[in-house]
Structure formats: structure tokens, C-alpha cells
Amino acid sequence: MAPSAAMTRSVVVLGTDGALHRINPLTGEVAEPLSVIPAWSKPTDYTVARPVMSIDGHRAYVTDPAARTVTLVDLETGKILRRVTLAVTPANVLAGGHGH
Questions:
Q1: pLDDT by residue for the chain (100 residues), tens digit each?
Q2: Measured in whole angstroms, how far is the alpha carbon of residue 8 from the centre of its chain?
Q3: Which of 7, 18, 1 is nearest to 57 (CA)?
Q4: Is it true that domain 5-85 has CATH number 2.40.10.480?
Q5: In DSSP terms, which residues pair with 79 in a beta bridge?
């Protein structure tokens, strides 16, 4: 994904392909996706954890329950800043703060 300050003025979607997709809500233009986690399938059982994303300013936090990880992505540069492996399966994520 090309770095862009406009990333934070876009709609960002986590797809089942494991990528973040940036969409300009005014033009409908879709930027090149950024692969963050492996592709995944939506579980048929709603109680099974699935990947989720939360955005805090210029950063996205993406969970991967299968790998027990949370990945931190800089939305301005399109770079993965950090991937943390957890001792538990992440079922949700909530970013807080001001995106600093």
C-alpha cells in the first residue's frame, strides 16, 4: 500500500483475505490492499473468535485468533510496526488514546 496521509480520511476494512483495504468514501476509489494476517474464513458458529480490527488515529490493531496475535499497523506509512503473540486467543480489540 502506498503511504498516504489521506489514509486516516478513508474507510478501512479488514477483508477475509487478511488485508486492510482503504476506500475513499467520496470517490469510491480502492487503494492497494495491505496484507496483515493470513486469509481466513468466517466461522459458522458466532461464538468462535474471528479476526477483528480497531483504529486509533493513524494506527490499526488487527487480531488473528488462529495465531494468537495482535498486529499494529501504521496507516500513514502502510507498515507493520509490531506483532505480539499472546498466551490467550484474542476475541476482540479496542484501541484507545489519541493515535499518538
A1: 554 554 447 899 999 999 999 999 888 999 899 999 999 999 999 899 999 999 998 899 999 999 999 999 999 899 999 999 999 999 888 887 655 4
A2: 13
A3: 7
A4: yes
A5: 74
Say if residues 40 and 67 touch (Cβ distance below 8 Å): no
Quote the distance between the C-alpha of residue 45 and its chain's center: 22
3's CB contacts (< 8 A; 6+ apart) are 76, 77, 78
Query: What is the model's pTM?
Result: 0.83
Count of Cβ atoms closer than 10 Å to residue 69 Cβ: 18
DSSP state of 27: T
Domain spans in the chain, listed from the N-terminal domain onward: 5-85
C-alpha cell at 11: 474507510
Cell of 10: 478513508
